[in-house]
Write a structure and sequence with these properties.
The chain has 114 residues and is mainly alpha-helical. The protein has helices spanning 2-59, 61-72, 101-110. It has a domain at 1-76.
């Protein structure tokens, strides 16, 4: 009878352990799905706000005028255009790294010229 109880308790423990492991892995899977869904939702919100901002900018008459003037290179009557040339890159002189002091002393005393 005692052996029967031990086997029954062991089987109950084994059943509970497998159920716990199964639930743990399912929880991890659901949590990763939740995180992915949450990240997608946040990206969609950011994109939505940027699109709404672009719509507001495109409906603003001042912004429309500014875009047209920039594309056609036009000026208002009180504006002055300043044309700047593109900067040319200046060449940089590469200086060699100096020889360390100990190497200079070594060369001074022990270098043999043949």
């Amino acid at each position: 009878m005692k052996l029967f109880k031990q086997i029954l308790v062991f089987l109950l423990f084994l059943f509970l352990l497998t159920s716990l492991i199964k639930n743990f892995f399912e929880y991890k899977k659901n949590y990763s799905f939740y995180e992915d869904y949450k990240n997608d939702y946040e990206k969609a919100l950011k994109q939505n706000t940027s699109l709404k901002t672009q719509i507001l900018k495109s409906n603003d008459p001042n912004q429309i005028e500014k875009i047209i003037r920039n594309k056609l290179n036009l000026l208002k009557s009180n504006e002055v255009a300043i044309v700047l040339p593109n900067p040319t890159p200046t060449p940089v002189m590469i200086t060699p790294t100096p020889i360390p002091v100990y190497a200079q002393w070594w060369n001074t005393f022990f270098k043999i010229d043949l």
